[in-house]
Amino acid sequence: MEIELAQALYTLGKLSDEKASSMCVSLLEAGFDTPAIRELAGFQSAAHLDADVLFGRVLSELNRPAMPIRRAALVVAMELARRKRLRRN
Fold it and tell me: What sign does the CA torsion over 18, 24, 28, 33 have?
């Protein structure tokens, strides 16, 4: 999952704790390393961690500006269309 899609899901309140953690693992593998990325990449149980707040810190540490809701909806819609197109082929 790319960071723009993860941010869009976060903006819309639809980013699961598991997807947030997975995104941070991918970020670490790509060479991005911040305290919040490390913490969220290592998360095991949502009961012990507020992944939503922590992912907000990840975005801040990566200097990503807030994503407008309209842009977030467009990013998610484009991803859904891409997946549907892939299923048809």
Answer: negative
Tokens 């048809």 belong to: 88
* pLDDT tens for each residue of 76-89: 999 999 999 888 87
CA distance linking residue 80 with residue 65, whole number of Å:
23
Q: Which of 1-5, 12-16, 66-70, 82-86 has the lowest mean pLDDT?
A: 1-5
Tell me the two tokens of residue 50: 């507020």
d(CA 10, CA 15): 5
Nearest to 12 by CA among 58, 67, 59: 67
| The residue to which tokens 């500006």 are assigned | 65
Structure tokens at 72: 């977030």
- Output the CA torsion sign for 89, 73, 6, 43: negative
Tokens 């947030």 correspond to what residue?
Answer: 20
Q: What is the pTM of this model?
A: 0.84
